[in-house]
Amino acid sequence: MNKEKQRREILRFLKGKGNKDVDAFCIYQWIERCHFHGWWDIGIALAPSVPPNSLDQDYHKRLNYLLYECRSKLKASTDNLGISERRHIRTVSAKPSANLNSIDIFAFESRSKETLRQIYSVLYFMGYYEADFPDAIRSTMKVLNVNDYQTICDKCARRFAGTVDKFKSWYHSGEILQKLDETFSLSPDDYIIFRDMLAKQKR
User: Fold this and answer.
1) Among 87-101, 125-139, 157-171, which range has the highest average pLDDT?
2) Among 72, 125, 181, 185, whose CB has the most other CB atoms within 10 angstroms?
3) What span, in angstroms and rounded, lies between the C-alpha atoms of 90 and 128?
4) 86: helix, coil or strand?
5) Helices (H), strands (E): how many in the chain?
6) Contact 98, 22 (CB under 8 A)
7) Looking at residues 22-35, what average pLDDT do you find?
8) How many Å apart are CA 171 and CA 173, to the nearest integer?
């Protein structure tokens, strides 16, 4: 498969429109290709789709190296950009994997599904891209096509945690999943969506 065709296939997967039966080894190979071609942001976006212990130890070691390289190269390529340009790249690179790229098609079962989608996105950017709360909201605005900053802020704060500081405190203390479940009475599937995304983050 040629370079551009492969890239289109990967992007379709990241948008939730490609083959859903792709296994962990195929995604590993895609990350190899992203590293080879310099598609740093796409390689990083694929990472959460490789479950822990889904590959042999040697492959996981190689994968960790590839992702380290992708992050380093992406950081180096954006260090000289302005803040707004860095935010844009962060958002594009995170139109994500089986976690964030699926936000547009996630059928959250709760009646508060739009609130959950927005909170999920903010948490994703705070975790995978180490964005602060305002940047995570701005990235979410772009990914979910929301025009008003306050709309998303209210979902996280007034609608859920009460205040922004409390939202951030719950996130950093690891209480956020429990609080989401208590507030929204998450269905088993909704709970798993949040649990799996948060479990793959390193704070």
Assistant:
1) 157-171
2) 125
3) 10
4) helix
5) 11, 0
6) no
7) 92
8) 6
